Amino acid sequence: MGGDQYVAAVAGEAVERQIGDDVRDEWEKQFEKMIDEVVPFVGAHDLVFELKARGHTVVLASSSIEKHAEHFVDAIEIRDVVDAWTTKDDVEATKPEPDVVKAALSKAGTDDAVMVGDTPWDVEAARKAGVETIAVLTGGAYSEAELRDAGAVAVFESVRELQVGLEETPLS
User: Each residue of 60-88: b (16+ CB within 10 Å) or e?
Assistant: First the structure.
């Protein structure tokens, strides 16, 4: 879920109206102090390279701001491999709304896609955009049952496990 929706989801619409922008500004300041401590999931780099080797177009659909997305594209070392990415800066509303996924589809130039995500919001956004989701338990906050209940077509323990199990997915 993007920051544009998080304050209202957690604290309600009244708090969103009163201090939502201030909360997001403070979150950004605090996150930027520790952004270099956030490391990519094991296997993220290899998964992207494997998908490209299989002939897939790889587009990242993030609810983050552009500079954070770029930071992580570089941290994963995929800038020269990923075809494009979308962020909250490209859309009206972030996940669980489908805008970021639709923008990614537009950049990819296709509707033939599969989402890889780790939250029910990823699954919901993709479903609203007409895209199936393969989920991974990397986020740590959601169970396999929660991700399947949201509509994930497959769930893997990790990004590495997904790469090894690609033949069992719509990405084969």
Answer: bbbbbbeebbebbbeebebeeebeebbbb
The tens digit of pLDDT for each residue in 77-98 reads 999 999 999 999 999 988 999 9
Encode pLDDT of 35-78 as tens digits: 999 999 999 999 999 999 999 999 999 989 999 999 999 999 99
Q: Could you confirm whether domain 39-168 is CATH 3.40.50.1000?
A: yes
Peptide bond between residue 96 and the one before it cis (omega within 30 degrees of 0): yes
Residue (of 73, 67, 47) closest to 171 by Cα position: 47
Output Rg (C-alpha) for the chain, integer angstroms.
Answer: 16
Cβ partners under 8 Å of residue 133, min gap 6: 114, 115, 116, 117, 122, 123, 126, 127, 150, 151, 152, 153
Whole-structure pTM value: 0.86
For the chain, the structural domain boundaries read: 1-38, 39-168
